[in-house]
Amino acid sequence: MTDPIKTQALHDLGLQDTPLITGLWQVADLERGGQDLDRDAAADDIMDYARAGFSHFDMADHYGSAELIAGTARKKMIAASPTGESSLQLFTKWCPQPHQSTRAAVRSGIEERRERLGVETIDLLQLHWWSFEHPGYIDVMDHLMELRQEGVIRHLGLTNFDTDHLSVLLSCGHEIVSNQVCLSVLDPRALGDMSRLCMQSGVRLLAYGTLAGGFLSDRWLGAEEPAAVSDWSKMKYQRFIRAVGGWQTYQQTLQVLADIAAERKVSISNIATRWVMQQPAVTGVIVGARLTDSQHREDNRRLLSLKLSDEELARIDEVQTRLIPIAGDCGTEYRRPPFLTASGDLSDHLDSLPPVFEKTAVAGRPDRWRISSGSEFEPICGYSRAVRDGHRVLVSGTTATHHSDRVIGADDLRAQTTYVMDKISASLSSLGASLDDVVRTRIYLSDADDWETVSRVHGRYLGQCMPANTLIEVSRLVGEYRVEIEAEAVIPATAETTR
């Protein structure tokens, strides 16, 4: 049966006939030495892809000169077309820092994307956000919605958002068509909670990493694990292979794909990619290209007529049970250990982000600091969002109040609880503590039947440190809130010099 929501998403993104997107992130790898690719030669490669029927390209603000190359290809196609048109569909990403959440900053960032691509309207603009402690991603999406209404952006998407924070944005009424996430035979995280929310909401997945940086290919069948790899893709996905159980476990998975490929007379890469394409929440699959270096257009073409049988899918499902699941949800590898990224440990980058709240010393109390979150209730009631006294940090009862009075998740308890937990995490960080230091939480619900939704979010944030916890039903909470949470943390004495 055809899924009408997925069909609409395919049409919205222009992927209904060829759900393959050519990824340009390796442009950054090819330009690592500081020398840009020959822009005309690389643009000619893009035009060759388009002539072969692959007209969708994915890039980002930090993929070297990828946007400029795509813009050059578009300009060349328009010049060569009798009708002055281009068939290219250009999807790009913007990865702002927390301070870039103002209307002016967002408009400037998107204007730069338009100029580099040479377009009036960006086909798909995808937002990446580094740390959800910083709630500015909500403001950024508000401003992106305005630009969409002005015709500057055709469609809005996300990249590497987890399920909880996708639910936050959906609860705010943001019109999101896609979320770009890692998804492969080795990493099926997106097929659980994320896919369920996507199927309910109409958001669809654009999957990258489907070939694990080229490791899911014939070249590596039976090969020894390389002692060192040179390109960023392989650096990244070698970490994934080690995380799922190591080289031997990966080879077992590769052998099952190879057996099916041999029976079908196609490549291992075809089977691995087709498995992703057949997942219900997936609208498009991103396959990387090394422009001016190597292309796989002919091999990719076989995917369009290939479909795996239920028996073949079951064989892949069985071998996946031998893999150790990748920790966390989609995008977790960019935000907390283990950092399964091309560059490895991102803690220095994340630690360099400014605290969400500014701490203030308490006069006459040298060991006491406090923070305010800007809530309208704090000055009225005379309390702080959180207080640090020596090694103790106490976070006041926290609701999902964005800025002074905007309620997040009024109709979505999961989103509301997620925002609360982010605010608690930000409060702790601003005072030198972390979620790992939490020793007690108290949860107040206006309806005890909401316990499971709230508790599951609580568990995703605090399941590693396992603090003492009390959950209480109260007669009501002030305003539209359904949940309020307070927390207490103790900073280890050994951490005092670093916090």
Q: Would you kindly provide a written description of the structure presented here, covering whatever features stand out?
A:
It is built from 17 helices and 17 strands. By secondary structure, the protein is α/β, with parallel strands linked by helices. The strands form three sheets. It has an eight-stranded parallel β-barrel, surrounded by six helices. Strands 9-10-11-12-17-15-16 form a seven-stranded mixed sheet, covered by helices on one side. Strands 13-14 form a two-stranded antiparallel sheet. Strand 6, helix 8 and strand 7 (about 205-210) form a beta-alpha-beta unit. Helix 3 (about 40-50) packs across helix 4 (about 65-80), helix 10 (about 245-265) packs antiparallel against helix 13 (about 310-320) and helix 16 packs parallel to helix 17. The radius of gyration is 24 Å and the shape is globular.
Number of strands: 17
* Coarse morphology: globular
The largest sheet has its strands arranged as 1-2-3-4-5-6-7-8
Decide which structural class fits the backbone: alpha/beta
Number of helical regions = 17
Classify the helix fraction into a percent range: 25-40%
Ends: how far apart?
56 Å
Spans where pLDDT lies below 50 across 5 or more residues: none
Give a quick account of the main beta sheet: strands, pairing sense, barrel closure: 8 strands, parallel, barrel
Mean pLDDT: 93
User: What is the radius of gyration?
Assistant: 24 Å
Percent of residues in β-strands: 15-25%
